[in-house]
Write a structure and sequence with these properties.
two-stranded antiparallel sheet, 134 residues, mainly alpha, MAL, transmembrane helix, 4 helices, transmembrane
């Protein structure tokens, strides 16, 4: 999951973010989820879960639910930004498309990886729900 999330982060950052209001949220979600997922993985791999008294099954479920909801919204916003490829804007008396062909291709890839990441977090959410509920 964090691998696909990192790809979303890289792809959106490399598209020069032509729509900062939409793609700013996508960047925030992908960077935050990437960082927290690596931190969560590090806690589990280091064995700290045995030292910290908490309901880890519930925390796992709550984390994956939150990230799934945020990533689903980020996927929708990235898809909306990508769909504006044919929108033309008038800048200094020259009508040009909002996204160049290169930026459009990068945004398509970012949309696909955002969808894949959303599906991965959804599957993890389902597995976390099965572990949490007896």
């Amino acid at each position: 999951m964090w691998l696909f999330g990192g790809l979303v982060w890289i792809l959106v950052a490399s598209s020069n973010v032509p729509l900062p209001l939409l793609q700013g949220w996508v960047m925030f979600v992908s960077v935050t989820a990437f960082t927290l997922s690596l931190l969560f993985l590090g806690v589990f791999l280091s064995g700290m879960v045995t030292q910290i008294d908490a309901n880890w099954n519930f925390l796992d479920f709550a984390y994956h639910f939150t990230v799934f909801v945020f990533y689903f919204g980020a996927f929708l916003l990235e898809a909306a930004a990508t769909s504006l490829h044919n929108l033309h804007c008038n800048t200094t008396m020259v009508v040009q498309p909002l996204l160049s062909n290169n930026q459009y291709n990068i945004n398509v890839a970012a949309t696909i990886f955002a969808f894949v990441t959303t599906v991965c977090y959804g599957c993890s959410l389902g597995l976390a729900l099965r572990r949490w509920r007896p």
